[in-house]
Amino acid sequence: MISCGHCHEKHETVADVKKCSLGDNPTPEAPRLKLSIANPLTTKPDGGRGQYELLQILLAERGMTLLPPYPQAAQRISRDEAKEMINDLIKNHTVKLPDVPEGHYAIPSLTGNNDYDFFKFYEYNGNMHLKRVVGGHPDMKVYRNQVVGILKAILEYGPEKAGKLYAQETNNCWKCNSHLTKYASRQLSIGPDCAEVLGQLDEWMRLQSEWEAAQRRSDVPHRKTDQGEQRQVPKARRSPGSCRPARATRVAGRGVG
Known about the structure:
It is built from ten helices and eight strands. It has helices at about 15-20, 45-60, 70-75, 80-90, 145-155, 160-170, 185-190, 190-195, 200-215, 245-255, and strands at about 1-5, 10, 105-110, 115-125, 125-130, 140, 220-225, 230. Mean pLDDT is about 75; it is low at about 25-45 and about 250-255.
């Protein structure tokens, strides 16, 4: 026998208990409330609200009009409608990112955790990607709701200025991230290949040739004296196998001295 919570009696089967609890004319079970963005009080934080915030991010990235604040919009947009809008934005609308060229950049820290923040902005499979450069670790992904703000900060600081700051702080090319070892590369913050791409190869060649010419002129060391700096006269070369200067050897051969 099974106790019944409806009549407080005992029934033989579970079916009898269920029949008793529903009465002689049982009504169909009431439909459960479907969680949707239209019911903010019944929506989980990672459900409708998260979906709505993603929709706002997608609209902002594409330069489109944002929706009203969450509670007001939630009363008018269902979960299915929001999903439809999200799919349409991703498939049919191009993201409008700030006009920042590909490269590596350093800007004053946006978080205050460091003096500078370092970023890599590059194209892959037809899409632009932004990553945070962290020393000693793989490049870190930047959350998509931060991408536009960071690119705007780079644009306001100046892409070329931010690129040169990156090269200055890391000694790497701000375009391709290669090491800068030549004098002209360090002066322009880019290597010869990237200088050619940017139309600065002539400037790079001029700087490098001027530096090399200056090095050749300074091959002979200078000696400081009381009268100032004087150029030292090179010592006479010695003949092979001899400990005397070549001139002394030739003079000795002629029987002089």
